[in-house]
């Protein structure tokens, strides 16, 4: 009994911490946004005088206008690095190398090599099972973003996959009924209401995230049954250690499905850390916009 | 007076209809063209009777004319840097960049197995055209967006591709500017070279 009291005290502390982080985000983001707008405006002025020209293998007639942009300049950012607010870049770089090294020297050749003897369809099923358990998170966040149609679709998917799809191991909702998943998390909900990403953080083992999404994860813990945050009726694990074990296993299983992709993508990088950071931030941005 | 007004009115109406028809044409042309190209590429990949090297060469000849690698390189480097470097450096950079992007695109095709690529309706964004496509893989929808601009010499060409919402040009821009912050342009070329055949 004393133990569980202790536990709930911790969760209250966590909650306060998260509130603090989210609160500080609201204060950080507007000033950043203003900075960006200023920078964009100045680049528009520079580019307006240019003409559209392009496509040249002849390098003799190199004039100003081969940039060809009446607007290419605004489409991309980052010519000056200070546009990316990245106070943890030193730590993040080290952690990226650590995670990558872990993947290249331990995960890929040892752990995943053994694990991948399990046929892929089975691993896909395990992934489906965890995805299905993510339903409460998804439905809460769909509602918070006022996406009622997607809330309905997600609920229908949950009912179909939990029954016909045998506890969610299969995904007949997608393959038979064509119901696509519309998973949302609290990071996306915050983004939907205009909270910027804050700065980028690379976690050991779990990889890239940012301040907003990390805060979002802590909130999502409260509704996802595979985590252990408190004494709840729908807990499927008994304590925090089992909860983290399950989360780690879930991530590990998912990783096993995407080794080829990761191998392929990391070869595209000239400089792994900013490359992976861009990949994360841009794909999250897209998910928020959808 | 009224006659005159009618004349202007009809000219404007004809002009507007014509321009919308032409625009619609451009959009469906691009969709048709990409449908054909992607179709050819996917059948080539699925055809196991052709050796991989020969197959890759064939795919490259289909893909290469679609991309404006020169512009992609310049956009990735950014205007400020491009102005600063010498002619020889520009030439060396463009060549290396072209090979790199092409190779990276080709290596992505190795990940492809037998998914159906769906080509959605093109969207006009200012004076450019975005062509969304997607495929289903392990029950997940994967989006690939091709971005076209109209070049004076060669018509509509691809200047950027978004894979799962990640712009290729943007990732290169961030990396290049980061590298150039600390190192010389020659070092950047060296990096582009060293990864060339990995």
Considering the chains and any ligands shown, give keywords for the structure:
heterodimer, A: 290 residues, mainly alpha, B: 198 residues, alpha+beta, 61% helix
Shape of chain B: globular
Number of helical regions of chain A: 12
Order of helices and strands of chain A: HHHHHHHHEEHHHH
Q: Tell me the distance between the termini of chain A.
A: 45 Å
Task: Count every beta strand of chain B, where a strand is a DSSP E run of 2 or more residues.
Answer: 6
Measured on Cα atoms, how large is the radius of gyration of chain A? 23 Å
Describe the protein in words.
- The complex is a heterodimer of chains A (290) and B (198).
- Chain A has 290 residues and is mainly α.
- Chain A is 63% helix and 3% strand.
- Chain A is built from 12 helices and 2 strands; from the N terminus they run ααααααααββαααα.
- The model of chain A is unreliable at 25-65 (pLDDT under 50).
- With 198 residues, chain B is of the alpha+beta class.
- In chain B, strands 1, 2, 3, 4, 5 and 6 form a 6-stranded antiparallel β-sheet that branches.
- Chain B is globular.
- The model of chain B has no long low-confidence stretch (mean pLDDT 85).
- The chains are: A mainly alpha (290), B alpha+beta (198).
- At the A-B interface, helix 2, helix 4, helix 11 and helix 12 of A face helix 3, helix 4, helix 5, strand 4 and strand 5 of B.
């Amino acid at each position: 009994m004393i133990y569980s009291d202790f536990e709930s005290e911790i969760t209250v502390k966590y909650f306060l911490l998260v509130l603090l982080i989210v609160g500080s985000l609201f204060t950080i983001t507007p000033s950043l946004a203003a900075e960006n707008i200023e920078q964009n405006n100045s680049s528009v002025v520079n580019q307006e005088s240019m003409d559209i020209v392009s496509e040249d293998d002849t390098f003799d007639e190199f004039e100003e206008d081969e940039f060809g942009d009446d607007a290419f300049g605004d489409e991309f950012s980052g010519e000056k690095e200070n546009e990316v607010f990245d106070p943890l870049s030193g730590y993040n770089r080290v952690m990226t190398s650590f995670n990558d090294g872990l993947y290249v020297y331990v995960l890929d050749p040892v752990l995943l090599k053994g694990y991948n003897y399990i046929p892929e369809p089975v691993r896909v099923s395990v992934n489906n099972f965890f995805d299905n358990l993510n339903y409460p998170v998804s439905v809460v966040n769909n509602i918070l973003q006022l996406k009622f149609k997607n809330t309905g679709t997600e609920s229908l998917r949950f009912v179909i996959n939990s029954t016909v799809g045998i506890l969610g191991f299969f995904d007949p909702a997608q393959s038979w009924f064509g119901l696509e998943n519309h998973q949302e998390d609290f990071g996306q909900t915050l983004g939907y209401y205009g909270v910027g990403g804050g700065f980028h953080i690379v976690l050991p083992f779990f990889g890239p995230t940012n301040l907003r999404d990390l805060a979002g994860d802590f909130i999502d813990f409260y509704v996802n049954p595979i985590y252990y945050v408190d004494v709840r009726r729908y807990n499927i694990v008994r304590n925090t250690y089992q909860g983290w074990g399950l989360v780690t296993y879930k991530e590990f299983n998912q990783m096993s499905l995407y080794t080829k992709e990761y191998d392929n993508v990391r070869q595209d990088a000239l400089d792994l850390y900013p490359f992976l950071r861009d990949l994360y931030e841009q794909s999250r941005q897209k998910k928020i916009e959808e | 007076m009224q006659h005159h007004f009618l004349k202007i009115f009809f000219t404007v109406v004809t002009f507007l209809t014509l321009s919308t028809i032409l625009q619609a044409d451009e959009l469906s042309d691009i969709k048709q063209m990409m449908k054909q190209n992607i179709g050819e590429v996917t059948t080539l990949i699925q055809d196991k009777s052709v050796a991989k090297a020969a197959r890759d060469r064939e795919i490259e000849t289909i893909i290469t004319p679609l991309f404006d690698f020169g512009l992609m390189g310049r956009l990735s480097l950014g205007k400020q840097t491009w102005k600063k470097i010498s002619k020889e450096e520009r030439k060396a950079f463009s060549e290396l960049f072209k090979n790199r992007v092409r190779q990276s695109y080709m290596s992505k095709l190795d990940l492809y197995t037998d998914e159906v690529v769906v080509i959605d309706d093109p969207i006009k964004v200012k004076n450019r055209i975005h062509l969304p496509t997607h495929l289903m893989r392990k029950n997940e929808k994967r989006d690939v967006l091709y971005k076209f601009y109209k070049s004076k010499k060669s018509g509509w060409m691809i200047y950027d591709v978004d894979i799962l919402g990640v712009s290729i040009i943007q990732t290169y821009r961030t990396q290049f500017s980061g590298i150039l912050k600390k190192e010389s342009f020659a070092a950047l070329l060296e990096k582009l070279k060293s990864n060339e055949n990995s």
